[in-house]
Structures are given as structure tokens and as C-alpha cells.
Amino acid sequence: MKLLMVNDATLELHSMEKEIPWADYGIDTVFTAESAAIAREILNMHKIDILLCDIEMPGEDGISLIRWIRETNIDIDCILLTCHADFAYAKEAIVLDCREYIVLPARYEDIGSTVKRIVMQRQKRLETMQLQEFGKNWVKTQQESLQVENRSQSPKETVSECEAYIQKNLSNENLNVADIAAHFYLNAIYLSRIFKKEKGVAINQWIIQKRMELAGSLLKDPSLTAISVAHRCGYANYPYFSTVFKTYYNCTPSQYLNHNE
Q1: Is residue 134 part of a domain?
Q2: Where do the DSSP E strands lie in the chain?
Q3: Which of 54, 92, 129, 153 is the 20 to 30 A CA-CA neighbour of 12?
Q4: Is the pTM here over 0.70, yes or no?
């Protein structure tokens, strides 16, 4: 576990760094910062597990630093240090989901014991998350395997069905892999894999290709406007349609129209 200590009192900061036997409390690496600004730099460069932070600091205080941590969704367990048993600080610590609130002066053994308790809680939580993730991946794998086993069709036949479904629903702006997979009771990851294997292109790219082929064909009809063509091809946003069209045909819909008049 990696610990970051933040305290503007330099002597106290480095005394804690050297005199507390951090390894005994589950910490293998200790970083120090004498201001919130330096702490931000460290947090942006390193994966920190636990923050031990003083509240009262000049400039940006510890509360503001932890608020930034929460706003940026950094996964870190925070412990606040303060010389004042102020209810407002304690309340803010609860709001910011701080694990502990230590009033100084405190014995180094007590600080170390508190950190060790947080280390053990964090390890347990991380292990639980890893097991949950493993379980989700296992379930996905089993579902995919069952789909392969239970479908009488070959992957090639399945992809052919999906092609037909895509061609029929090109005007649906919400057409995507998840929609297609749900229609055929398939796992989206499995469908994406077999589609790319059979067609040599990702399914989303194939949808764009077919929409652009349809757009090119429809734009040759003088009774249709470019905007109506965009809608028929599943693009409610004309500027976006125009951008995709230009990428595909190397010209705008208007230029394509003029060329084919």
C-alpha cells in the first residue's frame, strides 16, 4: 500500500515519515507533500492508496484537497489530522467519506494503528471488488459459451441474419451492436467477434458503410433533399451526417448532389 502524508509543518511531517515504522502497518511506500498543490502533483503521478492529511494549511487546506479528490473520482482512503476537535471539520469529513478523523497530538502508535486498520479494510474491499469482477467475467464467458452451444446456426448464418436486420433498420438512429445483439438474444461481445471474423470489419463500421452506400444512392434522386436523405439513413443530426458523408466520399452531400445532377 502507498501512503501520502500532507502537512505544511515540515518538521512534524518528516518526523512522522522517519519515526513511524510504516512497514509494520502495511505501508510499503511513503510520499510526503508540504502543500495541497504538491499533493495534487503526486496524486496525478502515482497511484496512492491512503491519504493522511492535515486540515489547517495555508492556501488550500486539507478539506479542499479531499473535495478535489472526490470530484476527480480518485480511489483513495482519506484520514484527516487536526489540532482542533471542531464539529464542522468532523461533519465535513463525514460528507467527504473520510475513513478517520484524528485529533492531534496523537501517539505515533495510534496513528500507525489507525492506518493499519484502514489498510486492512481497503485490502478486503479491493479483494471483494476483484472477486466481483472475476464473477462478472465468468458469467459473461458462460453466457457466450451457452449461446454458441445452443444456437443451431453457424456463425456465418448468424452474421447473415444480422446483415439483413441492419439493412432493414438503417433509418433507426439508435441502431447499434447492443440493439442487434438483443434482437437476436446474443451476447454483444460474441456478436462483435463473429461479425468481424466473417466480414473483416467491425459491426459499427459496417453499419456506417451501409448507411453511406444508401445515402449515395438516395442523393441521386432529385426529389429528395440532403436532410431527408440523412433522416432515412439514421442521422437526425444533419451536420454529423455531413461530416460522416465527407469522410466516406471525400466530398459534402451538396457537392455529391451537384456532381450527379
Answers
A1: no
A2: 2-6, 29-33, 50-54, 77-82, 100-103
A3: 92
A4: no
